[in-house]
Amino acid sequence: MLDLYGIRNCDTCKKARAWLELHDIAYHFHDFRDDGLDRSVLEEVERALGWECLLNRRSTTWRQLGDADRMELTREKALELMLRFPTLIKRPVLMASNTILTGFLPAQYEKAL
Q1: In CA terms, which of 40, 68, 89, 93 is 20 to 30 Å from 47?
Q2: Angle at 38 between CA 15 and CA 59, to 5 degrees
Q3: Count of domains in the chain?
């Protein structure tokens, strides 16, 4: 079984979940807002993808951050921000055996799964 991390009402997460269900792929959905986020999971995803790829700079949350938070980003600062504000994470995050993906592209899921 794979894990899908995201936010229940996120349109992209809804598309990913619908795709998985259409293809009869069992998964566990982990909602950042309801279930929180463990640092160990975030670090595993970051090691696989890099914090720059994982940080969603298009999000409303990013735009609402103060300049002090957005300036001079480092890996550690970005991870702390993502832990404080999980909506800064590009969604959804798919974790399956040896595969970690962020965002949703059907072709990418097809190839990986």
Answers
A1: 68
A2: 45
A3: 1
- Domain of 107 in residue numbering reads as 2-112
Strands 99-102, 2-6: pairing kind: unpaired
The burial of 1, by beta-carbon neighbours within 10 Å (0-12 exposed, 13-18 middle, 19 or more buried), is given as exposed
Question: Is 53 a known active-site residue?
Answer: no
Active-site residue identified among 7, 10, 45, 88:
10
pTM (predicted TM-score): 0.91
- Give per-residue pLDDT as tens, 23-40: 999 999 999 989 999 999
**Could you tell me where the DSSP H helices lie in 1-113?**
11-22, 32-35, 39-49, 51-54, 60-64, 67-70, 75-84, 106-112
The enclosing domain of 25 has a CATH number of: 3.40.30.10
